[in-house]
Amino acid sequence: MYIVNSTVSVPEDKAEEVIQIYRDRSRMVDKAEGFLSFQLLQNQKKPSELTVHLEWDTRENYLKWARSDEYKQIHELEKKYPDQELAAIIPRVTQYKVVAE
Questions:
Q1: Concatenated DSSP letters for 56-73?
Q2: How confident is the model at residue 42 (pLDDT cuts 50, 70, 90)?
Q3: Do 18 and 10 contact (CB within 8 A), yes or no?
Q4: In whole angstroms, what is the distance from residue 19 CA to residue 24 CA?
C-alpha cells in the first residue's frame, strides 16, 4: 500500500469552509485505478491544520493518477478558487510506503 498526505494550515476562520469544500469534492479520484480511500483529517490541537489522506494500492497507480488529466483538472479548479487567500496555500506533501501491517 502507498499513502499520500497533503497538509495545509488555513486561517482559523476558514477551516469549516475548507472542510465543506472537501465534503463536496468531485470524487474523480475515487474512480482512479488503484485508489483505495480518501479521508480529510483535522488536527485536534490545531483545528486549522487539515490533512488530505489518500491510500493507494501501489506507488505506480498514485503516480499515474498524479499525471492524469483528471488530476490536472482538479488542481486547476483550486487555482481559480474565488478566495485567493485559500487558493494561494501550498500543501506540505508526504508520501509513505506501507512496510508492515
A1: ES-HHHHHHHHTSHHHHH
A2: very high
A3: yes
A4: 9
